[in-house]
Automatic annotation (TrEMBL):
Pfam families: Lipase_3. SUPFAM superfamilies: alpha/beta-Hydrolases (SSF53474). It comes from the Bacteria. The lineage of its organism: Bacteria, Pseudomonadati, Pseudomonadota, Gammaproteobacteria, Vibrionales. Residues 62-207 form the Fungal lipase-type domain. This is Predicted lipase.
Amino acid sequence: MSVKKLKRYQYERYAVLCNLAYKRVLKQTRYGFAPNGQRVIANRFGQPMMRVLWGHQSDEVIVVIKGSHNLWDWLLNLRIWFRSCRELGLEYSIHSGYYRLINQESMPKHKQDHLGASVYQQLMDVLVPLIINGNKRITFTGHSSGGAVACVLADAVEKQYPKSIKRVVTFGQPAIGGWLMMRRYQLAHKTYRICCDLDIVTFLPPLPFIYWHVGKILWLYNGRIYENTSTLVRFGRSITSWLIRPFSYHLMSKYIRNKDFFDER
């Protein structure tokens, strides 16, 4: 899997959708989806957590998952012990807090939703007809904890419906599982984990050799894309960058770059 397989327009589209996921309303027709091509999956508080988007002319369904967006979500990040995912059909354990996000009750947002269903169950109720009857393939994308959750949900869907997942693209994602997940995760060849510069969240949880990332990392750093840079190397470069940053402002290149300030006066 090469970065060339993730086209610029795809990257931009997924990034824009992840950003819009934090908005209260997303008008899907503005972004090429069908008028009836959106279903919202809510969390236990009735707030949108995921959006399932599709169009009539494309075989791709995009599941967009937003990251922590309330105090309850942020506190779940602290539940760093592992929890088995066997009820999702997966033979590994994940971060207990993110497990809770997936299995929390989902408040109905659509006439076809029903009380008592979990986020995972509500999502599957939407995806299964699209996969079986619509011959659609699913892309999962998400930011922060939403990206971590996206990996697990995509793996669970792939387990039940082989070859139904098109790709997984995450932004600023923390690790979600241990060594066993890294070994058994089925979609490593289809997963792009995008990290921007010195994003501290991508080093969380701070438990090296206990938590592991999955898929290919694309590190956007110093104007370049680095593929599969190890966490240790990224951490070392990040620490070095933090230490020397005050001195970097002394370089003549910084003064030249800021010449446009004078044009504005």
